[in-house]
Amino acid sequence: MSFEENIRKVVPYTPGEQPQKKVIKLNTNECPYSPSPRVAQAIKEMDIDALRKYPDPVCASLVSSLAKYYGLSDDQVFVGVGSDDVLSMCFLTFFAGQKPIIFPDITYSFYEVWADVYRIPYKVIPLNDNFDINVSDYICDNGGVVIANPNAPTGVAESLENIEEIVKKNQSSIVIVDEAYIDFGGESAVGLINKYDNVIVTRTMSKSRALAGMRIGYAFGPAKLIKYLNDVKFSVNSYTMNMPALLAGKAAIEDDEYFTEIRDKVVATREWCKKELKELGFTFRDSKTNFIFARPPKGNAKEIFEKLKENDIYVRYFNKPRINEYLRISIGTDDEMKKFFEVLKKI
Amino acid sequence: MSFEENIRKVVPYTPGEQPQKKVIKLNTNECPYSPSPRVAQAIKEMDIDALRKYPDPVCASLVSSLAKYYGLSDDQVFVGVGSDDVLSMCFLTFFAGQKPIIFPDITYSFYEVWADVYRIPYKVIPLNDNFDINVSDYICDNGGVVIANPNAPTGVAESLENIEEIVKKNQSSIVIVDEAYIDFGGESAVGLINKYDNVIVTRTMSKSRALAGMRIGYAFGPAKLIKYLNDVKFSVNSYTMNMPALLAGKAAIEDDEYFTEIRDKVVATREWCKKELKELGFTFRDSKTNFIFARPPKGNAKEIFEKLKENDIYVRYFNKPRINEYLRISIGTDDEMKKFFEVLKKI
Question: pTM score, two decimals?
Answer without folding.
Answer: 0.96
